[in-house]
Structures are given as structure tokens and as C-alpha cells.
Design a protein that fits this description.
Blueprint (H helix, E strand, L loop, with lengths): L11 E2 L6 E2 L12 H7 L11 H15 L6 H21 L5 H18 L1
Antiparallel strand pairs: 1-2
């Protein structure tokens, strides 16, 4: 993810190469424009697309995101059931955890399995 990034005191444009360098005050925050964020009322990540390969990758990403289907309930239930079985197998080997910790692990495991599917 190319982090941490170099800090830049002021935004500038190199006239010889045309490279735009945006101000960065923190090494782990993406570029942003406060005026665009305010106007759109949303979070955004700004990236200049200068090559055909970057444009194709962006079109693919947007198309894939927009056309993804919502998983069926029975599919999600089957994945959650796998998480429950996994926790039950671990419970046999480690029965020291209290009920709250077991519940937390169960919910986290089910969420991770659903999110990864």
C-alpha cells in the first residue's frame, strides 16, 4: 500500500515534467481535497489517471463493484455454520475462555468467514 508516504509541505506542479505533488501532512493518509469532500458530502481518494492501464484498471474495478451480486441468505448461513463448527472444535481444546470471550470469538469468526466469501 506504499505506506508510509513522504511528507510534503505544500502542493506544487513541476512544470518540466507536469508531475503534481499534493500536500501531505501525515504519512498514512491518502490525498484529499477538502472542497470536493464538502461539496460531495462523502469520503474520497484522489488519484490522477494518466495512463491507459490505470484507466482500464479503474473501469474494471468500478464495473466489478457495481455489478457484484448480494449473496443469498442460505449461502451466508452455510458460511456462518462453518464458523460455528470451527469455534466448537477449538472449544474442545481450550475450555478456559468465559462466555463473553466465546461469544466474541464466534461473532468475529462468522463475520470474517462471511466477509471473505
Amino acid at each position: 500500500m506504499r505506506m508510509p508516504r513522504v511528507l510534503v509541505k505544500t502542493s506544487n506542479i513541476d512544470l518540466s515534467t507536469g508531475q503534481i505533488t499534493m500536500r501531505r501532512s501525515h504519512p498514512s493518509i491518502n490525498n484529499f481535497n477538502e472542497w470536493l469532500i464538502s461539496a460531495c458530502r462523502s469520503n474520497m481518494d484522489i488519484k490522477f489517471i494518466l495512463s491507459g492501464n490505470d484507466a482500464k484498471a479503474l473501469v474494471y474495478y468500478i464495473t466489478d463493484y457495481v455489478t457484484k451480486s448480494t449473496p443469498a441468505f442460505h449461502d451466508m448461513f452455510a458460511v456462518a455454520q462453518q464458523g460455528v463448527k470451527s469455534i466448537e472444535q477449538q472449544r474442545v481444546t481450550n475450555s478456559i475462555d468465559n462466555a463473553i470471550e466465546k461469544s466474541r470469538k464466534l461473532v468475529l469468526r462468522c463475520y470474517n468467514m462471511i466477509a471473505s466469501q
